[in-house]
Amino acid sequence: MLEFNDVDEMLRLLRLPRMRATWEEWVDRAAREGWGGADLLRNLLSDELTAREEGRLKRLVAQAGFPFHRTLEQFDFRCRTELKRAVFQTYLEDSFVREGRSLVLIGPPGLGKTHLGVAIGMHAVQRYLSVRFVTVQGLLNRVLDAETGREREKVLRPYKRCDLLILDEFGYLTPDPAAGAVLYDLIAHRYEQRATVITSNKSLTEWGRVLHDTALASALVDRLMHHGDVYYLKGESYRLRDKPRRQPVSPQEALEGPREASEAQG
Predict the structure, then answer these.
(1) DSSP one-letter code for 14
(2) How far apart are CA 118 and CA 69, in angstroms?
(3) Sign of CA pseudo-dihedral 82, 84, 90, 91
(4) Once rounded to an integer, what is the mean pLDDT over residues 218-224?
(5) Do 172 and 137 contact (CB within 8 A), yes or no?
(6) For the purposes of burial, counting CB atoms within 10 Å of the CB of 217, is it exposed (0-12), middle (13-18) or buried (19 or more)?
(7) Model-level pTM?
(8) Mind giving me the DSSP string for 196-255?
(9) Mean pLDDT across the stretch 55-79?
(10) Which phi and psi (to 5°) does residue 2 adopt?
(11) 50 exposed, middle or buried (CB, 10 Å; 0-12, 13-18, 19+)?
């Protein structure tokens, strides 16, 4: 029978890294505060579990590939009166993912579509769900660059299997006859099984032109909308709202052109 006199070595073999790093501190604290053996063990195990949960969350966030971190609380619904906070809270519920539902956010740039998608994804990660965020063009580039069908499937696999997929910027696509088939395969695989969020600057009726295949786009939309919702965002871009506005130039000033510095100061 093996004998272990080195606590540090035993914790290494048991793969308890947090406990291995902190057990001496906990023992000292237990001595100072008069803890019994059960209290010490409880605190050691609780600290180890907390560290594991934190590590798991960090891995899930890194795996998701979010371009930034946002929450629904940070979204200014006052500027998007067509959206209701209470309604969007429902997309944070377990049922959205469990029922394999879809959400499509459509509108010009700068209206917060990506913010909303990331917020839904961040909340899902907090529930230890697997999430992937990717631009549509970025995903297509990787898939279409693969040389064999097996390699393409390897690229697509994590996006097919994750609990929540966020496809950003559908509409900014370079023409490729294979793009539509790739996206259809992905959405059809997730249909009624896993949740999907898509942001786009193109209305649903324009997706046929984006994919250069009206029939394929119609089938894609049909699957998304069967158990999904679509919202059309409108209004002023967040990016432009806080940008200083230039003073209007009169027709006379436009004809005269810029004045000399000395004249302007006079």
Answers:
(1) T
(2) 7
(3) positive
(4) 96
(5) yes
(6) buried
(7) 0.82
(8) EEEEESS-GGGHHHHHT-HHHHHHHHHHHHHTEEEEE--S--HHHHTSPPPPPPPHHHHH
(9) 95
(10) -75, 145
(11) exposed
| Residue 164 DSSP SS3 | strand
Q: Is the pLDDT of residue 149 over 70?
A: yes
Question: In this structure, how many other beta carbons lie within 10 angstroms of the beta carbon of residue 228?
Answer: 17
Helix axes of 37-64 and 17-33: crossing angle, nearest 10 degrees: 140
- For the chain, first and last CA: distance in Å? 97
State the DSSP string of 80-139.
-TTS-HHHHHGGGSHHHHHTT-EEEEE-STTSSHHHHHHHHHHHHHHTT--EEEEEHHHH
The pLDDT of residue 1 is above 80: no
Averaged pLDDT for residues 164-193: 94
Q: By three-state DSSP, how is residue 34 classified? A: coil
% of the chain residues with pLDDT over 90: 80
Task: Kindly state the tokens that stand for 176.
Answer: 């490729």
Rounded distance, CA 88 to CA 113, Å?
12
Query: Is it true that domain 67-238 has CATH number 3.40.50.300?
Result: yes
> What confidence category does residue 126 fall into, taking pLDDT thresholds of 50, 70 and 90?
very high
Give the Cα separation of 92 and 123 in Å (integer).
Answer: 6
User: Is the pLDDT confidence value at 2 over 70?
Assistant: no
